[in-house]
Amino acid sequence: MPTAGRAAPRVPVRRFRFRFPDGVRTARRRVPKGETARLGAWRGGWHSPFWGDRGLLRPGAEPGGVSLPRPHPLTRARPQELEEVRRWGGVRDLHLVDRDVLRWRGLLLPNNPPYNTGAFRFELTFSPHHPFEPPRARLLTSIHHPGVLPDGTVCQPLTSPENWEPITCATHVLQDLLLLLDNPGTERVLRPELARELSERPEAFLHQAKEHTRRYAEPRPDTLGP
Questions:
Q1: Ranges for the UBC core domain (predicted)?
Q2: Domains (ranges, CATH) in the chain?
Q3: 174 to 82, 110, 207: CA distances (angstroms)
Q4: In sequence order, what DSSP letters do the residues of 152-170 get, joined into one string?
Q5: Which residues have CB under 8 Å from 203's CB, separation 6+?
Q6: Which residues of the chain, if any, have pLDDT below 50?
Q7: Which of 144, 109, 112, 148 is nearest to 216 (CA)?
Q8: Residue-level pLDDT at 37
Q9: 154, 123 in Cβ contact below 8 A?
Q10: What is the pLDDT, as a whole number, of residue 89?
Q11: Which residues are tagged catalytic?
Q12: β pairing state of 23-30 and 13-20
């Protein structure tokens, strides 16, 4: 409470940028002198006894302050996933598509006939809401398989919305896809005519699948010369 005859002390006004669920807003707040010094050197998250945690992007004392981009959950919370998949022996040439962390491509190396003579390129696409929504795997290499459509869509209940669990990692998704290729059968079916051929004429199916693999699959990295 100011005394009579003395003006109240002037409290400086600072400009701040806050992150809210629906976007970024600029706000002006009066900051007591001691608090001003603490906020001036901000480089990360902060807490003020006056306003609490506000998700401040940057103290905008200078007009035109640049807000920092929000890192994607894949790069912030699970940065090790890409390296974990690379260390797994079932995939080669794993990389981001156009440096997009939401799109991965690589080669799957089946272990069993009739596909183990080739490599099959895949793309794994993540939702912006990963890991709360499932990724989608697709084969880019043509394959003669009852569980894979001509456009590369695969039968993978693991990544269906009703079965997806946020704790499922990318390695498990690709291991499940490799399991599908290693064990063509009549349980995970998208092409009934091929499932019928496999059930009724298995030798004819295997011959056709081997020939299709020879014509369309990519060379396996472990069979390439120096």
A1: 73-218
A2: 13-59 (no CATH), 74-223 (3.10.110.10)
A3: 12, 11, 26
A4: SBB--GGGSTTT--TT--H
A5: none
A6: 18-27, 29, 31, 33, 35-69, 71, 76-77, 224-226
A7: 144
A8: 42
A9: no
A10: 85
A11: 155
A12: antiparallel
